[in-house]
Amino acid sequence: MQAGLLDTHHNAVSTRRSPAWVVTGLLVAFYLLLYFGKEDYNATDAAVRYARDPLNLMLVKLGWKLNDNGSLWVFNKWYLYAGLYTLGMAVGGYFMLRKHGNSTYHRYRTYSLVAVQAVLGLMLPLVLDFLGRPAWYFSYFFPLKYDLFFPYNMDHMQPTVMAWFIVMTFVGLPLLVYFKGKRVYCSWICGCGGLAETFGDPWRHLSSKSPRAWRIEQVSIHSVLFAAFAMLGLVIGDGLAPEGHAIHNFANSYKGMYSLAIGSIFSGVLGTGLYPVGGTRVWCRFGCPMAAMLGLVQKFGRFRIAVKKDMCISCGNCSTYCEMGIDVRSYAMRNQDIKRASCVGCGMCAHVCPRGVLQLVAKRDAGPGQHTQEWTVDL
């Protein structure tokens, strides 16, 4: 048993007891306030008002205002949220590495997640906004960033920025996933997965491993993927249709419903709020269209979790700590490699295995009589 895992079933916050439900309530309330709370301050008006005051102008650009009595007030809740999000990942990453830092793979993966969030998810957007440029998040792509190709975003994209998002969405990431697995994005870059892997680590074992949950997952996540691409089709049709066409109203209504149901409620309120009672990858497992799209590529790619034959002792550690709800033990007991679309390649199953039965492998399938080349990750 790896250091720090023995308290999993003894800590009240991580075992669905009363403290866990209290934390869930606080997280849900926070996200409801974040998404549906109103801002009572206009940034544009403030920028004009403070144009000759460098200190206040800088505060305005960073999402704050300085009141006449000298107190500070947040009027851009998204900057505050980004800061808290980054802080949560950094602190959570520290405690996560106290338990799993003896693994080289987990150390570098955690460093990558926190660095990407701090640089691309917090500092770069702030700098761009301060310079009067659109505050792009260069680590989020369609269909996860569902509004990426909306007209109001496309109108403000420079050609190089547009090329980056289009190429990475439809070519770059699929190719990386084909060769290395969706872990490249879901466990090394993505901010959603980053929060789950760091702040959410105490609850990773709560993901349901039942066949029923797997069936629901398959229907749910691919339905959201279909809905995301349907919205893209509507956006394109909306742009091509003549003025006054009925598609305009329908497209706007559809975008609003998707934004509310998927972009706010599912991914935020439920996806993060349910960490303490439902596990840390509720959104990634049941709703993320990016995970669904990359998972389809992974099924045909080279990545898998290889099983050493006839070595599993059925301790169940691997299944317990799989945050994606995969019953890893059942595969290992059958001497069957794991190649599931939902696997994010976090490597925790191999990390907690007492006998080294599991390996993360990017394996080129060989034909008859040909040598099979393997790339393994040292955990």
Number of strands: 5
User: What proportion of the residues is helical, as a percent range?
Assistant: 55-70%
Spatial separation of the terminal alpha carbons: 14 Å
Secondary-structure element order, N to C = HHHEEHHHHHHHHHHHEHHHEE
Mean pLDDT, all residues = 85
Widest beta sheet: strand line-up? 3-4-5
Q: Please count the helical segments.
A: 17
Class of secondary structure makeup: mainly alpha
Cα-based radius of gyration, to the nearest Å: 22 Å
Unreliable spans are 366-376
* Shape call: globular
- Biggest sheet architecture: 3 strands, antiparallel
How much β-strand is present in the residues? 5-15%
List keywords for this structure.
two-stranded antiparallel ribbon, single chain, 17 helices, three-stranded antiparallel β-sheet
Please give a structural write-up.
The chain is mostly helical and 379 residues long. Helices cover 57% and strands 5% of the residues. The strands form 2 sheets. The protein has a 3-stranded antiparallel beta sheet. Strands 1-2 form a two-stranded antiparallel sheet. A hairpin with a 5-residue loop joins strand 1 (64-66) and strand 2.
